[in-house]
Amino acid sequence: MDPVLTISDQPDPDAEAVIEAGLNGFNDAAVGYADRRLLHVIARDPDTGKILGGILGRTSLGLWFVDLVFLPDTKRGSGLGTKILAEAEAEARRRGCRAGVLYTINFQAPGFYERNGWHRFGEIPCDPPGTSRIFMTKSLAEK
After folding, report:
1. Angle at Cα 38 formed by Cα 21 and Cα 133, nearest 5°?
2. Phi and psi for 93 in degrees, rounded to 5?
3. CA dihedral 89, 91, 94, 95 (to 10 degrees)
4. Is a pLDDT exceeding 60 seen at residue 32?
5. Containing domain of residue 110, as a range?
6. Pair 138, 119: CB distance under 8 Å
7. CATH label of the domain that carries residue 123
């Protein structure tokens, strides 16, 4: 019999564990090692300790993947984003990453990343019309 397929929009920790372990095991066997690690840089209010925003990402096989970046309006343009990005880049370099990879949406922050040395390598239209996802990379080779 064929497997039963289910579609869901809800987290399934059991499914995530099986799929993650399976893919990680496959990759580890192919390359002979496991080096995947989370890489987060979090900005907190100095008085309250409340999380303001930051970068959530991960490193694996010589690449740093930027998954999510957020700062509230009150902190944008203050230099905090550049500082957070630089801290994450430095840690990715320490981990031996050759490059960083991310995507942003054209109404989000492509200019911010370009000002910080990132380069576009692809763009895909998405919804709503006129919107696109911009894929970017940055070499982390020491200068």
Report:
1. 95
2. -60, -45
3. -100
4. yes
5. 34-139
6. yes
7. 3.40.630.30
